[in-house]
Design goal:
With 278 residues, this protein is of the alpha+beta class. It is built from one helix and 15 strands, in the order αβββββββββββββββ. The chain has one helix at 2-46; strands spanning 79-82, 90-92, 109-111, 114-116, 124-126, 133-140, 155-159, 163-167, 202-209, 212-214, 217-220, 223-228, 231-238, 260-261, 269-277. The strands form three sheets. Strands 1, 3, 4, 6, 9, 12, 13 and 15 form an eight-stranded antiparallel sheet that branches. Strands 2-5-14-7-8 form a five-stranded antiparallel sheet, with no helix packed on it.
């Protein structure tokens, strides 16, 4: 009798297990079916709202109309720094005489519509101060004579009187590459040598983002893009500081400052200089 009872218990347990298996399978199937629905609902929740196209458009303020330059003519909103007729926009970079509040007039000379360095008289700077800007400068190296390297056709374009873009004869004139034409002096060599040849006009187009300072020092460094003769030679280069001849670059807080051109002892010629405030 006990054997019969045990057998009945076993049969009952097996029946219960078999009955539970379809329910578990059905639960798993329901859970699997619900997962894609949950994922779809989550995707719908994460999907950005439907935008009306007009809600991301604006119509004011209207950018001012600027007439582009044609040939050597500058844009209509440019500040003309030298047009071949006078040096009224410039002054001597040397400190004024004792008791004088004004610097001397620019000592360089104009020959055939060109502004030429007068070696030994010192650099010149603009009377107007600048920050962010677009600058156009054309220069021509003098005859090389017996000069080589840094002594041949050397001058410099100093943004904010501090940061130099090198002017140098690049016609078969080896020198240190972070001091050749197209370089950010002693900081960044140009990506290519885009100088044509001695005696021809070279064209610089420079795009300058001035450094920003606050009471604690540097907030954002200067950045420059340089195009020489239509070829990009410095692509958004971030400056490490000023461009000294000796030592490492560093930043000293300043505001808007003049643009200056260097007297390095050779009669480099300049023409068609204009600048746009940005």
């Amino acid at each position: 009798m006990k054997k019969v009872f045990v057998i009945l218990v076993v049969i009952a347990n097996v029946a219960i297990v078999l009955a539970q298996q379809p329910q578990a399978q059905q639960g798993q199937q329901r859970q699997a079916a619900q997962q894609p629905q949950a994922q779809q609902q989550q995707a719908v929740q994460q999907r950005p709202p439907s935008w009306n196209p007009e809600s991301t458009e604006w119509y004011t303020p209207d950018p001012p109309k600027v007439q582009p330059g044609v040939g050597t003519k500058p844009p209509s909103d440019a500040v003309i720094l030298f047009d071949g007729t006078n040096l009224d926009k410039w002054e001597s970079q040397r400190n004024p005489a004792a008791g004088s509040r004004r610097r001397d007039p620019a000592p360089w000379k104009i020959v055939n519509g060109e502004m030429r360095v007068a070696p030994g008289t010192g650099g010149i700077q603009t009377k107007e101060y600048f920050g962010d800007c677009q600058l156009h400068v054309e220069f021509k190296s003098p005859a090389p004579e017996n000069y080589n390297g840094q002594n041949r056709g050397n001058s410099g374009i100093f943004l904010q009187n501090t940061y130099e873009v090198q002017v140098l004869d690049g016609d078969n004139n080896p020198t240190y590459v972070n001091g050749m034409v197209g370089s950010i002096y002693k900081q960044s060599a140009p990506s290519v040598n885009a100088y044509t040849k001695n005696g021809e006009w070279q064209i610089y187009d420079i795009y300058w983002k001035a450094p920003v300072f606050d009471g604690n020092g540097l907030v954002s460094p200067a950045m420059i893009t340089v195009v020489l003769n239509g070829i990009l030679v410095q692509n958004n280069y971030i400056l490490k500081g000023d461009t000294p001849y000796q030592g490492l670059p560093s930043y000293t807080p300043h505001g808007r400052l003049p643009l200056s051109l260097q007297d390095h002892g050779t009669e480099v010629a300049f023409r068609n200089i204009w600048i746009r405030h940005l």
